[in-house]
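Record type: monomer structure entry
Structure origin: computed from sequence
Chain ID: A
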Amino acid sequence: MPKFKLFANRKGVADQKRNNQYVKFARQIYVEAKKGGPDPNANLKLKAIIANARAINMPLENIERAIKRATDTGQADNYDEIRYEGYGPGGVAVIVECLTDNRNRTAADVRAIFNKRGGNLGETGSVSFMFDHKGVIVIDREEFDVDEDTMLMQALEAGAEDVEISPDTFEVITHPHELDQVKSGLEAEGYSFVNAQVQWVPQNTVKISGENAEKMLKMMEAFEENDDVQNVYANFEIEDE
């Protein structure tokens, strides 16, 4: 296959993935603006969602359109927040958060994704006890010339519980209710964020490899491609064979 065609295929996949993210954020913005009001300065949750959307370069016009739809009295879209739990291949615990206007469609889609990739849908509460509900603020280390000790000190002073350090990022961990407070404290220190939201953080990880790893990655990809799925969390770690 010619190189330009390979590039075009990769670009097409990347564009589709980005568009999927825009659709998900537009839905979140619509729901939060309808629920808490359209002014981001008076609606901190909406402000945080918009900041995360802008971090992936979602166009401002898309954001404004979603807010406008929420304030349109003739707009009657209603979305339900639903959490699904289940297991992937190799005993991996999976949590899937959805925003849907059709519960039956979403339940069928989620169940099919679990079943086709060697997993199974469980009851609510069947795996969430293996995760902690935490605020997670992600900072790109390349953007800020700060050493690990300074980052830890600033995060703790802002009210964070801990900082997880990787070669590429600082992940500031907070109590879910203190995410906004810690975020504001770090913004006052001059930081900007790749992402800041409440997440399900696994307490421990399950090591998988080979066919299980391949199926698990395909399961995650299928969930991420589904417009109703807002977030998916899993406690796996891929082990080199």
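Annotation 1: Strands lie at 80-87, 93-100, 120-121, 131-140, 162-165, 169-174, 195-202, 206-208, 229-234, 236-238.
Annotation 2: The chain is about 45% helix and 25% strand.
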